[in-house]
Fold this sequence. Notes:
Blueprint: H1 18-26, H2 30-43, E1 60-62, E2 75-77, H3 79-93, H4 98-113, E3 132-135, H5 150-162, E4 166-167, H6 170-179, E5 187-193, H7 197-210, E6 214-218, H8 234-241, E7 246-250, H9 263-281, E8 287-289, H10 297-305, E9 310-312, E10 334-335, H11 339-345, E11 366-372, E12 375-381, E13 384-394, H12 396-399, E14 407-410, E15 428-429, E16 436-437, E17 451-456, E18 459-464, H13 473-479, E19 485-488, E20 491-495, E21 498-499, E22 518-523, E23 528-533, H14 539-548, E24 551-556, E25 565-567, E26 570-571, E27 581-588
Parallel strand pairs: 3-5, 3-10, 4-5, 5-6, 6-7, 8-9
Antiparallel strand pairs: 1-2, 11-12, 12-23, 13-27, 14-25, 14-27, 15-16, 17-18, 17-19, 20-21, 20-24, 22-23, 22-24, 25-26
Helix pairs in contact: 1-2, 3-4, 5-7, 9-10
Amino acid sequence: MSLSVWWGRIDSVSQLSSTAEAALASAVSVAEVTTALEAETSNRQDIRENWSSKRDRPQSINPATTMQHCANVPVIATRSEQALHQLISQVTQSDLLWDVLVNTVGVVVDTHLTTQKFPEIHARSRLARVPVLMYHDILPEKQVFFDVTPEELEQHLQQIQQHGLTPISLDQLVSHLSTGAPLPAKPVLLSFDDGYAGHYTYVLPLLRKYGYPAVFGIYTAKVGKSMGRSSLTWAQLHEMAQDPLVTIASHSVTHKVLPGLPDETLRYEIVESKRILEEKLGIPIDHFVYPEGQYDDRTRAWVRAAGYHSALTMRREGDKFASESEDLLTIERLGQSRLDLAIAQSYGGPPAATWGTAFDFTAPIQKQRLDLEGTRLVLVSGGRPITIHADSRYQVPEIIANTNAVAAVDGGFFSLRSLSSNVMIGPVLSQNTGKFDPSNRSENPRLNGRPLVLISPDAVRFVPFDATRHQTLEGIQQELPQVTDAFVAAAWLVKDGEARSPASFGTLYGFDVPRHRAFWGINQAGQPVIGISQTRIDSVALGELLQRAGFRDAIMLDSGASTSLAYQGQSLVEGYEPRPVPHVVALLPPGEAANFNCIPTAVAANRNAAEAPE
């Protein structure tokens, strides 16, 4: 069997030409391997990539048909591409609604067209935190500290299940890192190194029990041999390789530390290990695991030249998630002892962009903490947005204490003339009052151009406020007929997916001053998001970060001393006590009607007459 098992079907393996076989057999440098594989690819342009295989992997990999800089550079065919072909087929057979095309095909095309050049990691993926957990031997009695017993491993899998993490395959991770495609909300990848017998005896049954995928790094010289510890047999490894939950990766031939080895030895460890596994198992081997996690530029060059789509590493000090990796050929991992960190910080990244302006008020409410360029952000997304206008000023957790709101952020601007006044600056409509209050009609023209926030049961609109049109309920109903909530905010931070320029803020006071900031908006999946910055930041820089974080539109709320965010009854503000406020934007659980038990309602009697002349 030859190296071309890369691209052959399990039941019909394509052979390399005898010329290519001879060239590869004598190659002892990256350049020679590259030349041999480029020549073979050029001679076989008509070969179709048609191995979907018996394994029904989550993603397939297309062979490269041209080589520009390095032999066999992978072309990643993600689930996006598969879905696109499916949808095109459906369109030719039946009529599909336009919104299905927009919201499904649009996502597919956007993801597919933004794939990064190999081996770079997509900028959107940098926002995620995907832990890759590394295990070694699994056996009843530990011999070294990093061994794990079968009972401990099952406890780990139970914790993963109980905390809502979703194990993914290595193919899924590589697709995510190269395209920015979103993963499940809390992903994790399980990896097992060195091919111990316990991987078949204990790990495989547990993976099948829980339905969890995993990757196994195999160094071929160990298979079927006694080398101080237990080993898998080729028969066991073949059975594992047929299971769709299992990905087999090369871990070299002899497990030598690779940096510093001569080219001839590197070729043997990296290229030959791939050939052996493909020949023995009848499947493509697309991923490599560096022995002891060690690599250098020459090692990476050989891994790339051999045609691997990714490589896993490890570090003895410091913890890094996959999104923090240098590139696809140096994917970082965490030791299995860091499961607590994985559970606490796993995040699949911002949702994929939808085409059009669809909304999704059915997603579960979840909290994420992001650290972007030294700025700490807290975001709460999902659910259905509403506003609450209280009868006085309170801390945000107090305003939602007796409601079914899961989270809330301080909302619009308010008058500071009285410590207890709930008078808003600009027109306001909230569900808890059911009354439209035009506020100070004579001063409202000063707000022209600022975002007027309009919320209905199934949509949100942000339109430039116009005092000639928006000072009556009928006026705002012209913009959104089923409007239930309305208020005037400070400024757009992100509009139609683009961060706003300094000029767009005009004369807005303090927009360029670093402050704690509150904001809310709609992400690329059409879900509502509220949040705050826990680091002082100016409005322009914040908008740039929120664009990266996946906002379609983001609106700045009352900020500075008013900045406040509550989640599940707790304040998420750090380092100061926020100023009490009379107004919040809140998120209700999907499908639930607002419950305003004991919520103070705003009444005109509380207003100072001098503040509201006609």
